[in-house]
Amino acid sequence: KNEYDLLVIGGGSGGLACAKEAAQFGRKVAVLDYVDPSPQGTTWGLGGTCVNVGCIPKKLMHQAALLGSALKDAHHYGWNIAQPVHHTWSVMAQAVQNYVKSLNWGHRVQLQDKKVKYFNMKGSFSDPHTVRGLTKAGKETIVTADNIVIATGGRPKYPTHIAGALQYGITSDDLFWLKESPGKTLPSFILNVSLECAGFLTGIGLDTAVMMRSIPLRGFDQASMEYLTQMASLVTEHMESYGTKFLKRCFPTKVEKLESNRLQVTWKNTDLGTEETDSFDTVMWAVGRAPDTKTLNLETVGVKTNSETGKIIVDASEATSVPHIYAIGDITEGRPELTPTAIAAGKLLAQRLFGQSSELMDYDSVPTTVFTPLEYGCVGLSEEAAVQRHGSDNIEVFHAYYKPLEFTVAERDATQCYMKMVCLREREQRILGLHFIGPNAGEVIQGFALGIKCGATYPQLMKTVGIHPTCAEEVTKLHITKRSGLDATVTGC
Amino acid sequence: EYDLIIIGGGSGGLACSKEAAALGKKVMVLDYVVPTPLGTTWGLGGTCVNVGCIPKKLMHQAALLGQALQDSRKYGWQYEEQVKHNWEIMVEAIQNYIGSLNWGYRVSLREKSVTYLNSYGEFVEPHKIKATNRKGQVTYHTAETFVLATGERPRYPGIPGDKEFCITSDDLFSLPYCPGKTLVVGASYVALECAGFLAGLGLDVTVMVRSILLRGFDQEMAEKVGAHMETHGVKFIRKFVPVQASALFRSRLEVTVNDLCSVGRSKLTIICTAIGRDACTRNIGLDTIGVKINEKNGKVPVNDEEQTNVPYVYAIGDILDGKLELTPVAIQAGRLLARRLYGGSSRKCDYINVPTTVFTPLEYGSCGFPEERAIEEFGKENLEVYHSLFWPLEWTVPGRDNNTCYAKVICNKQDNNRVIGLHVLGPNAGEVTQGFAAAIKCGLTKELLDETIGIHPTCAEVFTTMDITKASGQDITQKGC
C-alpha cells in the first residue's frame, strides 16, 4: 500500500495549490520542493518561481521604478523635493527579499496547518508510484503515493553557445537576489521578462540596454506573437523614450571579463554587418525558460514529453501518458506559463481526484499583463490571431489613443497610451480580444476579462456607463475603427 | 431660429449639442456661471471639468503622490527628509489644465458649427428664451426643441455667516491660497473626497458629520472609507451640525456647533461646506412655460426619454429627479437624446447598474446594489455575499494598511447566483470596477467569476478567487500568497 494519497513534486504556485486542496478532502498529502542553485549560486525557499524569482519580486521592483516616476510627477503637483534624488539598490533588494522570505515562511506554516508533509528534497521517479527524495546533504527518503503530480516548473535558459554566457551572465533567478546594484545592465533578447527587468532597472536609474534579434521567437503562442507587433512596438517605444537603450537586430557572440571586473560583450549588428563591443557591470540572459525535468527520471516511468520543448504532454485533465501521474503549471506542454492558471489547474485536479468533481480547466481567454514601465494588459485574441482565424473582412478593430488624466499636470508623454478591441463584424459583434497599454493595465483588464467570459458584445460594452475620470472608461467609449482610417485620438471630455 | 437650444454647457449639454450638430441640426448652447459668494467663476464645460471630477481627481492624485513619496523611501529612494507641499503650484497647474479644456470645448463647438453664447438663459414665452450676458446685454432666441442641462450648485447651510465665511467645492479648486486648517461640513462623497486630499497634502482636517457617511452608498463600505481616513489623520466630529460661523480676527474663523447635549466652539481657518447640491431650475422661467419641477428639491421629473411635462422641453444631467448625478450618465443621456430626436434612433439611456467610484484616500468603486438595498429588494435569505480582505502587493514593502482593502460581491441565489452588486475598497478602484460593470451588464454570475483566471499580481484578481461567504462567518484576514 502506498504511503500517501497524493505526492506533489514541486512546491510552486501549482504544486502548493493542488496539495492544499487535496488536504481539504482529508487526504494524506506530501510535497517535495527543492531549488538547485543557479550557476551563480542563487537559491531560495518554498513557494516556487512566482514567489521567489517571478511575479512577486518583479512587481515590487516595477513598483520601485514607478515610484521613481511618481517622484518626478510630484514636483508638478506641488511637492517640494530637494534634488538630488537617488536610488539605493540594497535598500530595495533587502525589503523585497524580506517580504519574499515572509511568504516562504507563510507557505511552510500553511502546509503545516493543513497537515501536508513537506520535504525539502529533490525528487526523481523510481517507478510509477515511487519517488526517491534527496536532501542537499545527500540523505535519501523513499516516498510512495497513489497519485503523483509533477509541478516542477522551469528555469531560465542560458545561451551556452555564446562564450562566457554561463560563467559571467546572470538570469532573473539571480537578479532579484542581488545584494549589490547590477549597475550598467544588458538584459538580452526579447521576452516579457527582459523588457520588464529592463524597464524597472531603467526606472531606478540604472544604465540599461536591451539586445534583441528581429525574428519572432519560435514556440510562442499567438498572444506573444501579438506582443511582437503593434502592441510590442508601442511598449518598446515608450521604454526608449523612458531611457532604455535598444540594440535591435543584434546578437551577442561572446562575453569576457575585464581587469576592472566589468564584463565586455561582443555582438554582431546584423543591420550594419558590423561587430561591436561595450562594457557592462551585468549581463542578464532572458532567452526563455526550460522545463525542469532532467533529473526527474521521466523515461524510467514512461512519462512522455514534447521532443522540441521538453515539456510534459498532458490531456485536458492534466493526465500524463502514465496512469496516476499528472502534471500542472509551467512544465506542461501547450499551457500558458502563468501563476493563476497553475493554481486553478492544481485546485481543479485535486477536486477531480478526491472531490467527485469532473470540472476541467478552461485555458481559453486567460488575461495577462506585462509589467513594463507602461504596462500592457490583454485578454483574448490578438489582432493577428483574429485575422488568421476569421479573415480581416470579418473582424472590426476599434481603437483609441488616450491620455490618463494624471499625466496632464505631470506633463508626461502619453503617446503610447493606447487601446484596441477586436470584434467580430457580424451582427452580434462579439468581442474577441481587448488590448490596453497604460498605467494599471492589470487592474483595467481583469473586469473586462469577465465580460469576455460572459460573451460580451460591442453593443453591450457601449451600453456600459463609464466611471469618470479613469483610463478604463475609455474602453466603453471605443468607436473609431481601424478600417475607417480616422484619427483615433481621444479629445477632451 | 434654431432646431435645438440647450441651456447649460456642461457634460450633458455639450454632448447633446455636438451630437445634434453632427446630425445636421442648427444648435445653440447657452452657458453661464453665476459667481459664488466669494466671487469665483469659471469657463465653459460645466461642473465636471471646472469644479468637479477633473480638479478633484487631480488633487486626489497630488495627495496620492504624497503617499507615494513616503512609500518610495522603503523602496530605496533617498532624498532630504523634509518634504512640503506648495498649494499654489498645484492649483496653478490644475487651473492651467482646466483652462485648456475650456478652450478645447469652445474650439470643438465652433468646429461643429454650434452657436455658443456665454449668457444666462431663461424662458420668456413658449419656444423663446431671453439671453443675458455678463455686461447685461439681452438677446432673444427661438427654437423648436429645448434641452435643460443647467446642473446644480452647492447648497449653503443657511446659518449666520455661511456665505460670508464658508467656501464650497466651487471655490476650493481654484483657491489662490492654501486653505490651512480646514473644517469640512458634510458627509457626501464631495465632503469626504475633499477632506481626504486636503489631509493627504498635509493639512489639518476635520469633518463634521450630521449622521451617516455617504448616504445612498453601501454603509459597510462607507464606514470602512471613513475608518481609513481616521487612521490616516482626518478627524471626524459625528452627530454635530454647525449653527454659526464668524470671524475672530483676520482670517481665522470660528464655528459654533450644536448637538443635543452641548455647544462647542472650534477655531479654524476655512470652513468648506459639502452638504448637497441644489438644481439650477428656480430662476430660468420654467413656470412661465409650465415645466413642472419637484418643489422639494427643484429637480425636473422626466419620462424614460428625458422629456418633461412640456413636450418640446427635455432635461438631462444632474437636474433630473431620481436619476444619478454623474458625468458619464449625462453624456450618455445627451447623446442618445440627440440621436432619438434627429437620428431616427429609439435607444434609451440605460440607468441600470451604472458603476461609480468615490475617490477618497482609499478609493471605493461599486456597481449595482448596495447590500442594504439588495436585502430590501430580494430578501436576505435569497442573497449570498462573498467577501475578502486583500493586501495590495505594492503596500507590503512599505508595510501599509494590511487587512484594510476589501471586496465583496452580492449574488442573487434565485437567479443562478447572478452578481447584483460588486464593491471594492482599494487603490485604483475605478480602473478595477469598470470592466466588472461591463461584465455585470452581460449577466455576470458567481460561477463565471470562479471560472475566470486572475491577472497576477493585481488587486482586481481578488474577485476571481472569492470563496468565503458572509453567512459562513469564516475569518477573512489575509495571511499570505
UniProtKB/TrEMBL annotation, chain A:
Q: Which residues bind FAD?
A: K59, G123, D330
Q: What Enzyme Commission number does this protein have?
A: 1.8.1.9
Per UniProt, the cofactor note for this protein states:
Binds 1 FAD per subunit.
Residues bound to NAD(+) are: G288
- The name this protein goes by in its record: thioredoxin-disulfide reductase (NADPH)
Q: Provide a GO biological process annotation.
A: glutathione metabolic process
Q: Which residues form the Pyridine nucleotide-disulphide oxidoreductase dimerisation domain?
A: 366-477
Entry cofactors: FAD
Q: Which leading EC class covers this enzyme?
A: oxidoreductase
Annotated Gene Ontology cellular components are: cytosol; mitochondrion
Give the positions the UniProt entry annotates as the active site.
H468 (proton acceptor)
Residue span(s) of domain FAD/NAD(P)-binding = 4-346
Q: List the disulfide bonds.
A: C50-C55
GO MF annotation list = flavin adenine dinucleotide binding; glutathione-disulfide reductase (NADPH) activity; thioredoxin-disulfide reductase (NADPH) activity
Q: Which InterPro entries match?
A: FAD/NAD-bd_sf (IPR036188), FAD/NAD-binding_dom (IPR023753), FAD/NAD-linked_Rdtase_dimer_sf (IPR016156), GSHR/TRXR-like (IPR046952), Pyr_nuc-diS_OxRdtase (IPR001100), Pyr_nucl-diS_OxRdtase_dimer (IPR004099), Pyr_OxRdtase_I_AS (IPR012999), Thioredoxin/glutathione_Rdtase (IPR006338)
* Record organism: Manacus vitellinus (golden-collared manakin)
| UniProt keywords, alphabetically | Disulfide bond, FAD, Flavoprotein, NAD, NADP, Nucleotide-binding, Oxidoreductase, Redox-active center, Selenocysteine
Q: Which family does it belong to?
A: Belongs to the class-I pyridine nucleotide-disulfide oxidoreductase family.
TrEMBL record, chain B:
Q: How is the cofactor bound?
A: Binds 1 FAD per subunit.
Q: Where are the disulfide bridges?
A: C48-C53
Residues spanning the signal sequence:
none
Full protein name: thioredoxin-disulfide reductase (NADPH)
Family (UniProt)? Belongs to the class-I pyridine nucleotide-disulfide oxidoreductase family.
Positions of the Pyridine nucleotide-disulphide oxidoreductase dimerisation domain: 354-466
**Looking at the record's lineage, which domain of life comes first?**
Eukaryota
Sorted alphabetically, the keyword list is: Disulfide bond, FAD, Flavoprotein, NAD, NADP, Nucleotide-binding, Oxidoreductase, Redox-active center, Selenocysteine
Q: Which NCBIfam families match?
A: TGR (TIGR01438)
Q: Ranges for the FAD/NAD(P)-binding domain? A: 2-334
Which residues does the annotation say bind NAD(+)? G186, A187, S188, Y189, V190, A191, L192, E193, G276
Q: List GO BP terms, alphabetically.
A: cell redox homeostasis; cellular response to oxidative stress; glutathione metabolic process
